[in-house]
Design a protein that fits this description.
About 80% of the residues lie in helices and about 0% in strands. It is mostly helical.
Length: about 190
């Protein structure tokens, strides 16, 4: 075998190894993102199981808030039945907004806020919300790594060839508008 043929063969082998390593890196990032979303799913399942209990407890005190409570349950069911990651992200953003509205509604019921069952459920919901926040951050970190790998040169060339694309982050959606407003402090 001639020297130029050996050089071409070595370059081809190095090129193939390099492409395979880029592909494997993209697959690892995609799998990390999917694993991170599986962690979110676990927390969401706990949240979905707790919401009906919380709503039933509140219903006993807040009979005329039926539409708010039904909206929370409907959005919970929609979020629980979402099948894709993007669908779950959209459904969760809607449910989070509805839960924020429920919290405002609950402020009108001082007896409810003193009820032990409600307090326990509220604490459990707070714990789950904190865990969800943590796993969402991990998911967004995994998504950022994947998106960076999909967008930077030269892996972007191979990402496009192998069908990898930029993925959605799990952001606050409509909640962001509420969070960006200054809180109003009122004394009665």
């Amino acid at each position: 075998m001639s020297t130029p043929a050996i050089i071409i063969l070595v370059v081809a082998v190095v090129l193939v190894i390099w492409i395979v390593s880029i592909y494997n890196r993209l697959v690892r990032f995609r799998n990390n993102r999917e694993n991170a979303f599986a962690d979110i799913d676990v927390q969401l399942k706990q949240r979905y199981d707790l919401i009906p209990q919380l709503v039933e407890t509140v219903k006993g005190y807040a009979k005329h808030e039926k539409t708010t409570l039904e909206n929370v349950i409907n959005l919970r069911n929609a979020a629980a039945s979402a099948t894709t990651i993007d669908g779950k992200i959209a459904a969760e953003n809607n449910l989070s907004s509805a839960l924020a509205g429920l919290k405002v509604t609950l402020e009108a019921y001082p007896d409810l806020k003193a009820n032990q069952n409600f307090l326990q459920l509220q604490n459990e919901m707070g714990d789950i919300e904190n865990k969800l926040s943590a796993v969402r951050r991990f998911f967004n970190s995994a998504t950022k790594e994947l998106n960076n790998a999909v967008e930077v040169f030269p892996s972007n060339i191979f990402a496009k060839m192998f069908g990898f694309k930029k993925e959605l982050m799990f952001d606050l959606g409509t909640e962001r508008v509420t969070l960006e407003q200054r809180p109003q402090i009122k004394f009665d």
